[in-house]
């Protein structure tokens, strides 16, 4: 299992205060990485326990990934605090908007793109700059896309969200190509229906989502944690520019 170990590495997860991002932060810490999170809200209590339970260093920075100034301030503080030691970045912060295509407003779509597309791209860019500056040979960026980049989600009205996640998946190989020369790998994860605050807004759809999955259930955030640890670690050293779908088979039948 040594190739899965992240001992001595430093990771940054955006949107790590709860849900999938928090699970990714925990998974990376369980594998041995020091983990910082960027989020607009304070982390859930579970985050505080990670440092002692996993014997790693953790930190929370209040950062809005859709703001260039906020991102730069966060990356600056993180770089100082963690001695310029970034190896792993997981741009996970994301939002959804449930609105009919014909009624979608320009402002709502722009706000969504600011987080889901610009926020991911600019987070990955600033992370890559720090990795190049510190010379890590273990650089790994794991973009969080979605099953919604592969299919029209039958039960939801989320055209802008689907488009934004398609952008994340499409930018992945292009960024990977440019960063390969620095030994930084870039991959994405496409989760299916995961039980988080994002999906809690749709309690009436849960039974339909269960039927959509071959395994008849929603994912818990811990169900997708392993894909992130794998992509962050040397166990995936020959993977770059790829997407891993973790969806209980929703997109495969
Ligand atoms: N839950 C699902 O079914 C599902 C499926 C596929 C993909 N995803 C993706 O996984 C990621 C995490 O989603 P989740 O389900 O855990 O949702 P969530 O709402 O529980 O978590 C999202 C986190 O991102 C943070 N965030 C939002 N806007 C931000 C901003 N501007 N700057 C910094 N942080 C911000 C939120 O505060 C929150 O902590 C998202 O990118 C989402 O699109 C979720």
TrEMBL record:
<dbReference type="GO" id="GO:0016616">
    <property type="term" value="F:oxidoreductase activity, acting on the CH-OH group of donors, NAD or NADP as acceptor"/>
</dbReference>
<dbReference type="InterPro" id="IPR002347">
    <property type="entry name" value="SDR_fam"/>
</dbReference>
<protein>
    <submittedName>
        <fullName>Putative lung carbonyl reductase</fullName>
    </submittedName>
</protein>
<keyword id="KW-0521">NADP</keyword>
<dbReference type="InterPro" id="IPR020904">
    <property type="entry name" value="Sc_DH/Rdtase_CS"/>
</dbReference>
<keyword id="KW-0560">Oxidoreductase</keyword>
<dbReference type="Pfam" id="PF13561">
    <property type="entry name" value="adh_short_C2"/>
</dbReference>
<dbReference type="GO" id="GO:0050664">
    <property type="term" value="F:oxidoreductase activity, acting on NAD(P)H, oxygen as acceptor"/>
</dbReference>
<comment type="similarity">
    <text>Belongs to the short-chain dehydrogenases/reductases (SDR) family.</text>
</comment>
<dbReference type="GO" id="GO:0044550">
    <property type="term" value="P:secondary metabolite biosynthetic process"/>
</dbReference>
<dbReference type="InterPro" id="IPR036291">
    <property type="entry name" value="NAD(P)-bd_dom_sf"/>
</dbReference>
């Amino acid at each position: 299992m040594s190739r899965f170990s992240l001992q001595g590495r430093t990771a940054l997860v955006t949107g790590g205060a709860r849900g999938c991002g928090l699970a990714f932060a925990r998974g990376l810490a369980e594998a041995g990485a020091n983990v910082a999170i960027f989020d607009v809200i304070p982390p859930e209590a579970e985050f505080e326990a990670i440092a002692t339970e996993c014997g790693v260093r953790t930190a929370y920075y209040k950062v809005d990934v859709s703001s260039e100034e906020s991102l730069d301030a966060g990356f600056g503080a993180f770089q100082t605090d963690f001695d310029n030691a970034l190896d792993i970045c997981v741009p996970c912060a994301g939002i959804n908007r449930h609105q009919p295509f014909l009624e979608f407003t320009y402002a709502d779509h722009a706000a969504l793109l600011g987080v889901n597309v610009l926020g991911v791209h600019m987070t990955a860019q600033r992370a890559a700059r720090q990795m190049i500056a510190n010379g890590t040979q273990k650089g790994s960026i794991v973009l969080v896309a979605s099953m919604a980049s592969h299919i029209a989600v039958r039960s939801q009205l989320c055209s802008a969200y689907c488009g934004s996640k398609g952008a994340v998946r499409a930018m992945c190989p292009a960024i990977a190509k440019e960063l390969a020369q620095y030994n930084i790998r870039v991959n994405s994860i496409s989760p299916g229906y995961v039980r988080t605050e994002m999906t809690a807004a749709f309690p009436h759809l849960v039974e339909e989502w269960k039927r959509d999955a071959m395994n008849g259930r929603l994912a818990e955030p811990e169900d997708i944690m392993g894909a992130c640890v794998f992509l962050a670690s040397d166990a995936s050293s020959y993977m770059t520019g790829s997407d891993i779908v973790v969806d209980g088979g929703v997109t495969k039948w």
